[in-house]
Structures are given as structure tokens and as C-alpha cells.
Recover the amino acids of this structure.
């Protein structure tokens, strides 16, 4: 049963709702659809599922791009309503006739909708009945055909067995393939089976043909497989005895030595008496504004090349010139496909994941389909402008990412601001943690590092070196400890010492490693950090989608909490090594919805920047 149908403008003004249905929706499915799907350029999807405790809906929608209207139908997820798509199309057609931009109330549309709904339901019932009628004779025909083939197979086999010679035996399984077999089992005729090349055989069973029989090949393979299994079984019985493992030699009957630990001795709270190696100087690039040049020569060249290719296929010079002056009536999907394909290829060359590029192009196509092309405007430039708006909308953070303000708010509440750095192996979590610490230090914020990577050899020493260079206290407990407990004790120590921020370093882990992901989920659940930063490489392409989606999925599945914490922000590393291949930023933001908060662009502590959305979008479309 249809729960609700709404018509509203792109500005958010509701023009009409079905009063006949009158069902109060649980939760806020429409708001979630707008926020999570339509504004995030995921409108190319067929439907959207809304799941909250006590409610489960499926939402379908369509646009009237020329009038700027959105039509949304809501129904229970458990139901499969076949008429929803047709109903939306009919409502869109009829409402566009009576729509007036100055009019706000459409009470007279209720009767029209009632008729349209009955018509759509009747069509769906007719289609359902026709499918059931068509399914019955087809099943009967297939049964009869199967019986006939079985009978013919048995008869052919008996005929062939009555003949003599080896060739009669070999052809027993494929009598439906060969014809013209003689009584003595020899064949000198041509055989054709569904386009198979002609096969000739002589009495001595020597194949001198243009193709081979696939059935015989399967038989030979099965025979060979059985023989191989027998040989393997024989060999397995005579397995050689395992050599005894060599034991460590014991001198003078001394007791066994304890496990070696080369970490430097430190006090319980992690403060070590170490000399400062070097005082780092310089201003962090986080506080510098990046200037984006306004040159667009390359964009114009690409647009003109695309236009030439598209226009030369279908239109002459005069026709395309006339359409650019007069303007096209309405853009159709066929008109947009060449420009969208070129745009998709361009995005993929910039290291955007293929799945993301395809979804973006579908969304842009849906938003432009049906719109009127303005005069003196090319299709490619219209598509590029729509894609540029979409990319800016995706990459612009939906919430505040001002960490300095959040730190001061936490300071007023007399508690430290906790940041946890997570990610796969070797992406630079420890190094970029030190960069963030240096940037916070420049703003007169007391920082403490927590060495919770108790798994990788040398991880504690690496973080200790950064702490010594930056003159920052570090909390550590050595190796083979529970990271969640170490982080908890570090936060308690920071509260006692009056530290403003605790930066928690964690072990690198692949997204498929469930034990390590469970430990990370426990660390986040026990300590409730203020910010969970995913550290990822800017070099990844399609793997960015897999990494972030599985990280979020594992954190959600393995957390004991009803409302698990997911990734709050992204730190992209090695940005100085990718030239114009900046697509990883788009892929990660699109798949997770988390903003890019930092960019690592070098080896020194000052090489940390903010994401410049305009610069990234310009590079992607260049």
C-alpha cells in the first residue's frame, strides 16, 4: 500500500500531498532522502531505503527539471508495488499541465490523482495476470522437450551400442550431435551442430578435422582426473616423517631467557628523560590561504574538442550553429550521453573510482534531462557546469570542521579533546599525527600523544622521536598491551596534567582483518573520542571505496553500542606525489560523507594543508 506521495519544489516548498492516503510517516524519510541522496548527487539511483527502529520505507522519485519539481512516493519496504514508477510518471505529466509558479495550493489535484492511481493499479494487475498466463505454456513446452530429448538419447545410444568398433563407443554420449552414422560405427559424412565446424572421421578413428568435439574432451578430462586422484591417494599414504624442530641450545643448564625488549626504560606515565634533539621552526601551511588561478584555457579547449566530436557525428555546421543560437527545446538522454561519457573518462583519468564516476554522471544526467538548453550554449558546457556544481556540493563540508573552536569548547568543560587516527598499513598515521600536533602547538594548545600502536615493531619509538623533537609529552605502555586500556589511561593522565588535546596513534590494519577491526571498535567504544580521523593515501583509486566503506561497515557491525561511532573526517596523505590525480579525495568523501579535514603534502611538520575545494574541482575537470 502506498504510504504517501508528495510534490515539492527544489527550493523545498511542498505544493501538494495526497490527503486521501493521510498516513503519518514514522521518522523523517523525506528529509533523509533530500539530505543523503538528492543533495549528495545520488539521485541517479532507482530507489532509496529508509530504515529506523519501528519504520522501514522505500522511496522512489522523479524530477521535472524544466519546472524544478520533485515527485516522491513512499511505501512500505516489505511491499513490492509494481505501479509506483508508472504512477509517478503519470502524476508528473498531469501536474506539469496545471502547475503555475504563482500558485501555492492544488486541492483540485486530489480527484486527478485518484483516477491516475486506479489506472496505474489496473495496469499492474493486467501485467501480473499476463505474466502468469505466459509462464504456464512455456513450462509445459520445456517439460515435453526434455522428455523427447531423453527418449532420443536412449534410442540413439542403443543404436550405437549395436554397432561394432571403438568409434561407436566413443560417440555413445553425443548421438544428438552426429548424424549419418553407419552400422559398423564408421562415419564418412559431414556433421553440423548449431554452427559447429564440420567434422570428418574415418574408419580408423583418426580425427582429421577443423574443430574438435567438446563432449569427448570433457570425457577425457574426467578420466584423467580420476587417474590423478588415485595417484595422489597412493602418494598420500606414504608421507615422509616430519623432521623434529630444532631446539635452542642451553648452556650450563641455565634457565630459559625471557623475551627480549629493546624499548628504553621509562616511568609509568610515559615521561622519559630525553634531551631535545632539535626545535622545529616554521609556520604550518594550515594557516596559509591557497590561491587558485582563474585560467580556464584548458577547460575551453577540452569543451571545444568534445563539441567537435559530438557535432561532427550527427549534425552539419549550419544545423549546430542554428541550434546554439535558437536553443534546443528539451535536453534528452541521448543528447547528454556523449558529453557525459567524455566527462566520466576524464574523471577516471584523475584517479576517481569508476563506480563513483558512473554514479556522478547518472546523477547529472537525471538533473539535466528535460531542461531547455539556453541560447548560445553548448551541451558539453552545460554538462560541465552541472558537474562542477555537483562536485562543489559534495566536497564542501556539511558541518563545521573548525577543530580549534571544538578544542576551546572542550577546554571550557574541563576535559581533553580526543582525536583517534585510524587507517590501513603504511599510509603515514604517525607522521601526520605529529604534523597535526605541531599545528595545534602553534595555536598555544597543550598536546599529548598516546602511543596505542602496541603491535608494530618500532611504533612507540617512532612516536617518541616525534614527541622529543616537538617537546610534547607522550603516554606509552610498551608493546603487547590492550590499546583501548592504554588510550583510556592516556586520557586520564591528560585530565590530571591539564592537556587540551590527546592525539591517539593506532596500529595500521586492513579493512578485512576482523580481529584488529574488533580491537579498534573496542577502543572507540571505550574512550568515546571527539574525532575519528581516517588517514588514507591520495594514491589509491578504486581501493578508496573498498577501504572506507568496509572500515565504516566493520566499525558499525562490531561495536556493542546501538549508535556506533563511524569515521568523522579524512586526512589525505602523500598529496605532493600525485600531480593532478586528485580523485581519491572525491571518492572518499562521496562514499563516506565525511569531509577532508587535512591534507599531508610533504615530509616536514609544516607540510599540512586544508582542502581547497575550488582547486580540487578545477583540477578534476581540467
Amino acid at each position: 500500500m502506498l504510504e504517501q506521495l508528495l510534490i515539492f519544489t527544489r527550493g523545498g516548498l511542498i505544493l501538494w500531498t495526497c490527503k486521501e492516503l493521510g498516513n503519518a510517516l514514522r521518522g523523517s524519510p523525506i528529509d533523509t532522502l533530500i539530505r543523503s541522496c538528492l543533495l549528495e548527487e545520488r539521485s541517479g539511483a532507482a530507489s532509496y531505503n529508509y530504515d529506523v527502529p519501528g519504520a522501514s520505507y522505500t522511496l522512489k522519485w522523479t524530477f521535472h527539471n524544466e519546472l524544478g519539481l520533485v515527485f516522491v512516493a513512499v511505501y512500505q519496504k516489505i511491499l513490492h508495488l509494481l505501479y509506483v514508477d508508472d504512477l509517478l510518471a503519470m502524476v508528473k505529466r498531469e501536474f506539469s499541465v496545471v502547475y503555475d509558479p504563482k500558485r501555492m495550493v492544488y486541492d483540485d489535484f486530489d480527484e486527478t490523482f485518484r483516477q491516475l492511481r486506479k489506472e496505474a493499479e489496473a495496469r499492474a494487475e493486467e501485467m501480473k495476470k499476463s505474466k502468469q498466463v505466459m509462464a504456464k505454456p512455456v513450462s509445459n513446452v520445456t517439460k515435453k522437450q526434455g522428455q523427447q530429448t531423453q527418449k532420443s538419447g536412449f534410442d540413439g545410444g542403443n543404436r550405437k551400442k549395436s554397432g561394432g568398433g571403438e568409434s561407436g563407443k566413443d560417440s555413445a554420449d553425443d548421438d544428438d550431435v552426429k548424424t549419418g552414422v553407419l552400422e559398423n560405427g564408421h562415419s564418412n559424412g559431414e556433421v553440423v551442430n548449431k554452427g559447429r565446424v564440420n567434422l570428418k572421421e574415418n574408419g580408423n578413428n583418426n580425427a582429421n578435422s577443423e574443430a574438435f568435439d567438446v563432449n569427448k574432451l570433457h570425457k577425457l578430462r574426467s578420466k584423467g582426473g580420476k587417474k590423478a586422484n588415485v595417484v595422489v591417494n597412493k602418494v598420500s599414504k606414504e608421507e615422509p616423517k616430519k623432521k623434529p624442530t630444532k631446539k635452542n641450545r642451553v648452556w650450563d643448564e641455565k634457565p630459559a631467557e625471557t623475551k627480549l625488549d629493546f624499548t628504553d626504560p621509562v616511568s609509568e606515565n610515559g615521561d622519559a628523560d630525553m634531551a631535545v634533539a632539535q626545535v622545529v621552526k616554521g609556520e604550518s601551511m594550515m594557516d596559509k590561504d591557497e590561491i587558485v588561478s582563474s585560467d580556464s584555457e584548458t577547460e575551453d579547449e577540452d569543451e571545444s574538442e568534445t563539441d567537435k566530436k559530438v557535432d561532427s557525428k550527427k549534425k552539419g555546421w549550419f544545423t549546430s550553429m542554428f541550434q546554439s543560437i535558437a536553443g534546443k527545446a528539451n535536453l534528452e538522454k541521448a543528447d547528454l550521453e556523449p558529453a557525459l561519457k567524455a566527462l566520466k573518462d576524464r574523471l577516471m583519468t584523475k584517479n576517481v573510482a569508476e563506480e563513483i564516476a558512473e554514479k556522478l554522471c547518472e546523477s547529472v544526467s537525471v538533473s539535466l534531462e528535460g531542461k531547455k538548453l539556453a541560447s548560445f550554449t553548448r551541451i558539453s558546457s552545460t554538462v560541465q557546469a552541472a558537474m562542477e556544481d555537483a562536485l562543489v556540493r559534495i566536497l564542501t563540508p556539511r558541518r563545521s570542521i573548525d577543530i580549534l573552536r571544538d578544542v576551546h569548547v572542550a577546554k571550557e568543560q574541563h576535559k581533553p579533546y580526543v582525536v583517534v587516527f585510524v587507517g590501513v598499513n603504511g599510509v603515514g598515521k604517525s607522521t601526520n599525527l605529529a604534523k597535526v600536533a605541531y599545528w595545534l602547538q602553534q595555536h598555544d594548545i597543550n598536546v599529548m600523544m598516546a602511543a596505542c600502536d602496541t603491535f608494530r615493531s618500532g611504533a612507540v619509538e617512532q612516536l617518541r622521536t616525534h614527541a622529543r623533537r616537538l617537546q610534547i609529552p607522550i603516554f606509552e605502555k610498551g608493546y603487547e598491551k590492550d590499546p583501548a586500556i592504554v588510550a583510556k589511561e592516556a586520557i586520564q593522565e591528560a585530565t590530571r596534567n591539564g592537556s587540551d588535546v590527546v592525539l591517539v596513534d593506532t596500529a595500521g590494519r586492513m579493512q578485512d582483518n576482523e580481529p584488529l577491526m574488533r580491537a579498534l571498535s573496542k577502543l572507540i567504544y571505550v574512550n568515546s573520542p571527539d574525532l575519528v580521523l581516517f588517514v588514507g593515501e591520495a594514491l589509491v583509486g578504486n581501493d578508496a571505496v573498498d577501504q572506507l566503506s568496509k572500515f565504516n561497515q566493520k566499525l558499525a557491525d562490531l561495536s556493542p553500542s546501538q549508535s556506533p561511532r563511524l569515521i568523522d573526517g579524512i586526512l589525505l596523505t602523500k598529496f605532493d606525489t600525485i600531480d593532478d590525480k586528485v580523485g581519491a579525495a572525491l571518492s572518499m568523501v562521496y562514499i563516506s560523507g565525511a569531509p577532508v579535514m587535512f591534507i599531508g603534502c610533504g615530509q616536514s611538520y609544516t607540510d599540512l594543508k586544508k582542502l581547497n575545494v575550488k582547486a580540487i574541482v578545477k583540477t578534476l575537470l581540467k
